[in-house]
């Protein structure tokens, strides 16, 4: 299998719909993740986020960090 000239380079997504995961932020069902989630010792997958919230979080975590506070909600 070769990647010749796909329309756009897309990261591989893992189908996690069978795991019944939901976004820790908005509660949306997560069907795909850019990585394979691994179960932790406590039997959960930790905090996982849907595509939108992930994008939002990436942006919020950008280079600028001059809006302190608002953290600690886990
Ligand atoms: Zn979400």
Helix content: 10-25%
Strand line-up of the largest beta sheet: 1-4
Measured between the Cα atoms of the first and last residue, the distance is: 41 Å
Q: Percent of residues in beta strands?
A: 5-15%
Number of strands: 4
Shape: globular
Mean pLDDT: 83
- The gyration radius over C-alpha positions equals 15 Å
| Helix/sheet category | little secondary structure
Supply the number of helical segments: 1
Write up what this structure looks like.
The chain has 74 residues and is low in regular secondary structure. The chain has a domain at 14-59. Helices cover 14% and strands 11% of the residues. It is built from 1 helix and 4 strands; from the N terminus they run E-E-E-E-H. The chain has one helix at residues 51-60, and strands at residues 14-15, 21-22, 29-30, 32-33. The strands form 2 sheets. It has a two-stranded antiparallel sheet with strand order 1-4. A two-stranded antiparallel sheet has the order 2-3. Strand 2 (21-22) and strand 3 form a beta hairpin. The termini are far apart. Residues 23, 25-26, 28, 49-50, 52-53 line the site of zinc ion. Zinc ion is lined by residues 23, 25-26, 28, 49-50, 52-53.
């Amino acid at each position: 299998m070769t990647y010749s000239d796909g329309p756009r380079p897309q990261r591989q997504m893992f189908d996690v719909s069978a795991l019944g995961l939901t976004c820790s932020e908005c509660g949306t069902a997560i069907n795909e993740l850019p990585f394979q989630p691994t179960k932790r010792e406590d039997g959960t997958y930790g905090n996982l986020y849907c595509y939108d919230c992930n994008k939002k979080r990436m942006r919020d975590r950008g280079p600028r960090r001059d809006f302190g506070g608002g953290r600690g909600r886990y």
